[in-house]
Structure formats: structure tokens, C-alpha cells
Specification:
The protein is of the alpha/beta class. It folds into two domains: about 220 residues, Spore Coat Polysaccharide Biosynthesis Protein SpsA, Chain A; about 80 residues, no CATH class. The chain is about 40% helix and about 15% strand. The strands form two sheets. It has a seven-stranded mixed beta sheet, with helices on both faces.
Length: about 300
């Protein structure tokens, strides 16, 4: 591709020594060669730093920036640090246990370069692999969606319902990412928040060809994200409080936590933005026993029936 735009590959590493080489090699083996690699080791406790240093020494022809944290700063701060150092027109995120298909950059740059300006990123499905790089039968999207008929469009409403984008499949424009202020450093689920903020303004391209592999293993973040910090969920979704779909989704989530007797501060976050709409909601706001909430709901239904029995 003539005048090939630069891709900045932002790589995070934390205790991933056994996977680092395979991941970095999947970048090196791209057919598309105009890229830089920016790596942050977020204070790994294994020998990840030594493994990365050795690979960098063996690949002097590749422009690489390696940031080594003495203390763990977390995903969002590490991403922003590398984003600020990046020079590319496009950004690729990669945890150094995941893999990229060799034609990913070539295909995705072509798609974005030929797309209208309202498209900010391209994503695809991802293979699922185990710690030995063996393929699982299912793919990433099938774990999150009950249907697989996706297309290039706006995904804001779908993302309000759930986060289904494989982050390692995404190639995105750098400028809108920077204009959004980078990743929210107060959140632990940084990718969902960013997809929501971008989809509020832009559309996403969908590539029907699988472009990457997501590794499932005991030490990666997939298990933690399945039990996402509830306060993070509310802080993410409350940014979209003006959207009725978001409000309903947040309340459903709040109600489920309440009925499980697992409320912490989520009700304070919610009712800090939304007024109490009914007597039953007072039970949630003041964290009364769920039996009172169920009783209040029953009384509301009875009263509604008496007012209009037919």
C-alpha cells in the first residue's frame, strides 16, 4: 500500500512471560510493515521484562518503546502512557498473551482508509485459544451474542446492553481516541467505556474475517471481567444516563444486586442521578430488606388493578 499510514501497536504485559514471544512474533509477522511497537510491563512478578528485553535485542530493525513500571499502575494508566508516546494514525491494542493473524493490519488499514469519515474503527470476531495455543470450538462473539449477523453500522445501543467487542480485534483511529481524553483511569473495565464513548459519535466497521486469537488461561482477565466490579459498571453506564435504554439497563442491574442482598454503593451512585420513581424504589434507595420491596411491588400492582380492573 502506497503511503502506508503508521500503526502504533500498544502492548500491555503483566506476568505473561510464557506467551510474550508468540504475541510479539504475531506483530512482527504482519504482511503490513509500517508499525511501531510500544510495550508497558506493569510491574510483572515473573521474568516478563527479561523475555521482552531479549526479544527486542533480537529484533533491532523494529521501532520499539519499552516502558517498565516499578509499581503496578493498572491497565488504563498504562494504556494512556503508551497512547501519549504513540505516533501512528491508527492504534492497535494487544495484551501480550493474545495473537494477531498475519493479514490483520493490511486488511484493516485498507478498510479504514476506504471507509467514510464517520467510521472510527474496525473489529472482527476472534478465535479462542488455550494456554498451549490450541483452538476452542467456539469463537469470541458466540460467548456474548445469541446471533452472529453483524455488519458495519452504529453499535451504541448494542454496547449499552453488553460489551461484545474483542479488544484485540480492533484497529482504531488515534485522533478520536485522544480527543476523548484517552482511557478513563478511574475504571477497571476500560475497553467497554471507550467503545461506548466512541460509538456515541461514530460508526464501527465489521470485518467478517477472524483477525486475532484471544487466549483463555487461569491468569488472564477474562474471569475477572465476567464478575466485573459493580461500581465500575455503574460509573461506566452513568455517563449515558440521558439514554432511556441505559437508564433501564442500569436499574435492572441495580435491582438484581439489591435482590441478591449484595448492594454496596451502587444504589447511591444510581439515585445520585435519578429521582426515586415509586415507593418500591425507596426500598432500594435505603437498602431495606428485599421482602419489603416485593411487598411494595405487590401493593402497587393491586392498586393499579383496583384503579383500572378492565
Amino acid at each position: 500500500m502506497e503511503n502506508s499510514p503508521l500503526i502504533s501497536v500498544i502492548c500491555l504485559c503483566y506476568n505473561q512471560a510464557q506467551f510474550v514471544i508468540e504475541s510479539l512474533e504475531s506483530i512482527k509477522n504482519q504482511y503490513y510493515k509500517n508499525f511501531e511497537i510500544l510495550i508497558c510491563d506493569d510491574s510483572s512478578r515473573d521474568n516478563s521484562v527479561e523475555v521482552v528485553d531479549s526479544w527486542i535485542k533480537d529484533n533491532p530493525e523494529i521501532p520499539i518503546t519499552f516502558v517498565k513500571h516499578k509499581e503496578n499502575k493498572g491497565i488504563s494508566k498504562s494504556l494512556n502512557e503508551l497512547l501519549n508516546l504513540s505516533k501512528g494514525k491508527y492504534i492497535q491494542l494487544l495484551a501480550l498473551d493474545d495473537l494477531l493473524m498475519p493479514d490483520k493490519f493490511e486488511r484493516h488499514v485498507t478498510m479504514l482508509e476506504n471507509a467514510p469519515d464517520n467510521y472510527v474503527l474496525v473489529f472482527s470476531d476472534a478465535n479462542l485459544i488455550d494456554q498451549n495455543s490450541n483452538l476452542y470450538q467456539n469463537k469470541f462473539l458466540a460467548r456474548h451474542l445469541s446471533y452472529l449477523s453483524l455488519k458495519s453500522q452504529n453499535y451504541y445501543d448494542m454496547l449499552l446492553d453488553k460489551n461484545f467487542l474483542p479488544a484485540m480485534s480492533v484497529l482504531m483511529k488515534r485522533d478520536p481516541l485522544v480527543q476523548e481524553g484517552g482511557f478513563d483511569e478511574n475504571l477497571t473495565c476500560e475497553d467497554h467505556d471507550m467503545w461506548l464513548r466512541l460509538s456515541r459519535k461514530y460508526d464501527f466497521l465489521f470485518d467478517e474475517t477472524v483477525s486475532c486469537s484471544y487466549r483463555l488461561h487461569p491468569n488472564n482477565s477474562h474471569k475477572q471481567k465476567n464478575v466485573m466490579n459493580e461500581a465500575t459498571y455503574f460509573k461506566t453506564m452513568i455517563k449515558h444516563k440521558e439514554n432511556p435504554l441505559a437508564k433501564n439497563k442500569i436499574f435492572q442491574h441495580l435491582e438484581n444486586i439489591y435482590l441478591l442482598k449484595a448492594l454496596k454503593d451502587e444504589h447511591k451512585i444510581y439515585y445520585g442521578y435519578f429521582p426515586v420513581a415509586s415507593f418500591p424504589e425507596n426500598c432500594i434507595k435505603y437498602n431495606l430488606k428485599p421482602i419489603f420491596y416485593r411487598l411494595a411491588l405487590a401493593l402497587d400492582k393491586t392498586w393499579a388493578f383496583l384503579k383500572s380492573p378492565y
